[in-house]
Specification:
The protein is an all-alpha fold. It has helices at 11-25, 27-41, 48-64, 68-75, 77-84, 88-116, 118-135, 141-169, 174-203, 206-211, 214-229, 253-282, 287-299, 301-313, 319-338, 344-354, 357-367, 372-390, 392-404, 408-428. The longest helix is centred in the middle third of the chain and has 30 residues, at 174-203. The chain starts with 10 loop residues before the first helix and ends in a 6-residue tail after the last helix.
Length: 434
C-alpha cells in the first residue's frame, strides 16, 4: 500500500504499536512501559488506592458546596429582604449574581490553573468559599451582595475545574465519577433549601442559618488538602493535561451547541432555585412549605443524578435523554403556571427530575471531547459563556414579575426557553467529538 493511501493512524495508537513491537524483541520493554503508565497516574503506587478514594471523597465534598450557598439564600430570601429593608429589584440582582459570577470567574479558572495547578486552585477556592459564607452575613445589603459575589466566584472555579479532575483522574470511570459529583451537588442543594428555613426558625436569625453552611465548605477543604498531598507533583506540573495550553473551541459549532444547551439548562435551574419558593408563596403557600418544596425538588435529583450519568454513557446517542428531561420540566412548569396549588408536590418532582439536564450537560462535555485538555477547554467555554448567558434569567424573571404584578409572564417565558433547550439537546446528543 502506498503512503498516500495508508489510513491515518493516531499518534497514541502508533506509539502503542511501536511499544508492543519492541516488546517482541525485548520482553521487559512492555513491562517497563506499563509500569510507566501506572507511574504517570499514581507515581506512588502504594498510595494509589487510598489517594483515589480520598480524591473521590474530596470531589464529592467540593461538589456538595456548589449549591447550598445559592439555595439556602433563596429559601429565606423573603426574610432577608424584609430584614434589610431592600426592594424586589435588589432581590432580583442577588438571584442573578450566582450565574453572572459563574460566567465571569469561570473565564479565569483555566488561567489560574495553568499558573498555580488545578488542585491548588480548587483548594484555594474552598478556602475563599468558607470565609465568604461567613462574611456575607455580618452586615447590611452591600455586604450580603459582596459576600455572595465572592461565594459564587469561588464556586465558579470548582464548577469549571472539577470536571477536568474527573476526566483526567478517572478516565475509565467518567460516568461513575460524574454521578458521584452531581449526586453530591444535588444533595447539597436540596439540604441547603430544606434545612435553612428550619434553622432560621430554630435560631431566630437568617444570618446564623446561612452562616451554618460554612461548616460544609470547611469540611471539604479539610479533605481536599490531604487528598492533594497524596498526589505527585508531576500531576500538577504545568505540562500536564490539566494545565497545559489548550486549543480554542470558539470556531467549533458543536462546542457552541453544547455551550447553549448548558446555558439554557442553567438559566432554568437558577430561576427555579432562586424564585420557585416566591412563586408558591405568591399563590398563597406559607414560607416554610415553599422552602420545603424547593428542597424536595432538589432532593429528587439525588437518586436521578446517581443513576443518570452511567446510563447516559452507555447509550450511543444522548438526544432522547435531552428530550425526555425537557418534557418533564415543561409539564411541571405548566402545572405551576396553570394550577400551582392543585398538585404542588407533583409539579416540584417533575421539575426536579427535569433539572437533571445539568448532569447530562456535564456528561456531554466529557463524551464530546477526546482528551482531558479538550474537556478542560469545553468545560471552561460552556460554563463561562453559558453562565453569562443564563445570568439574565433570574433577573428578568423577577423584573417581569414586577412589571406585570404576577408570575404568569415569567413562567411562560421559562416554558419557551425549555422548548428551545430541548432542540439544542437533541443536536448536542448526537455521537461525535469536537
Amino acid at each position: 500500500m502506498s503512503t498516500k493511501s495508508r489510513p491515518h493512524v493516531p499518534e497514541h495508537v502508533a506509539d502503542q504499536d511501536a511499544t508492543r513491537l519492541a516488546a517482541q524483541h525485548h520482553p521487559d520493554a512492555l513491562a517497563v512501559e506499563n509500569e510507566g503508565a501506572v507511574e504517570a497516574v499514581f507515581p506512588n503506587r502504594h498510595a494509589a488506592v487510598a489517594g483515589g478514594g480520598l480524591l473521590l471523597a474530596g470531589v464529592a465534598l467540593a461538589a456538595a458546596n456548589m449549591r447550598p450557598a445559592v439555595t439556602s439564600l433563596a429559601s429565606v430570601l423573603g426574610e432577608v429582604r424584609d430584614s434589610l429593608g431592600v426592594s424586589s429589584t435588589w432581590a432580583s440582582v442577588v438571584t442573578s449574581v450566582p450565574t453572572l459570577c459563574f460566567g465571569v470567574a469561570g473565564i479565569g479558572a483555566p488561567l489560574l490553573a495553568r499558573r498555580m495547578g488545578i488542585n491548588k486552585v480548587i483548594g484555594a477556592s474552598l478556602a475563599v468559599l468558607t470565609a465568604a459564607m461567613l462574611l456575607r452575613v455580618v452586615d447590611g445589603p452591600s455586604t450580603v451582595l459582596g459576600g455572595t459575589v465572592l461565594v459564587c466566584a469561588a464556586i465558579a472555579m470548582c464548577n469549571v475545574l472539577i470536571p477536568v479532575v474527573v476526566k483526567e483522574s478517572f478516565p475509565t470511570r467518567v460516568g461513575m465519577a460524574t454521578a458521584l459529583y452531581t449526586t453530591a451537588m444535588a444533595a447539597g442543594g436540596s439540604t441547603g433549601s430544606a434545612l435553612t428555613p428550619y434553622l432560621n426558625s430554630l435560631t431566630g436569625s437568617w444570618r446564623l442559618a446561612l452562616a451554618t453552611w460554612a461548616a460544609v465548605a470547611l469540611a471539604a477543604l479539610c479533605v481536599w488538602v490531604p487528598a492533594m498531598a497524596r498526589r505527585s507533583p508531576r500531576r500538577q506540573a504545568p505540562g500536564t493535561a490539566s494545565t497545559r495550553q489548550r486549543r480554542s473551541l470558539l470556531r467549533s459549532p458543536l462546542a457552541w451547541v453544547i455551550t447553549v444547551y448548558f446555558a439554557l439548562q442553567s438559566l432554568v435551574a437558577y430561576v427555579v432555585m432562586g424564585w420557585m419558593p416566591e412563586v408558591f408563596k405568591g399563590a398563597g403557600m406559607d414560607s416554610t412549605t415553599a422552602g420545603m418544596l424547593l428542597g424536595l425538588l432538589l432532593l429528587i435529583g439525588v437518586p436521578i443524578n446517581m443513576i443518570l450519568p452511567p446510563l447516559v454513557t452507555k447509550t450511543r446517542s444522548q438526544s432522547w435523554w435531552a428530550i425526555g428531561l425537557a418534557v418533564l420540566t415543561l409539564t411541571g412548569l405548566l402545572g405551576l403556571l396553570l394550577a400551582p396549588l392543585a398538585m404542588p408536590v407533583v409539579w416540584a418532582l417533575l421539575i426536579g427530575v427535569g433539572m437533571s439536564a445539568f448532569p447530562l450537560a456535564l456528561v456531554l462535555i466529557s463524551l464530546r471531547t477526546a482528551n482531558a485538555a479538550d474537556t478542560g477547554s469545553l468545560s471552561a467555554m460552556s460554563q463561562s459563556i453559558g453562565y453569562l448567558i443564563s445570568s439574565f434569567g433570574p433577573f428578568l424573571f423577577g423584573v417581569l414579575h414586577d412589571v406585570t404584578g404576577g408570575w404568569s409572564a415569567s413562567l411562560t417565558a421559562i416554558v419557551m426557553i425549555v422548548a428551545v433547550q430541548a432542540v439544542f439537546g437533541v443536536i448536542a446528543g448526537r455521537p461525535r467529538t469536537i
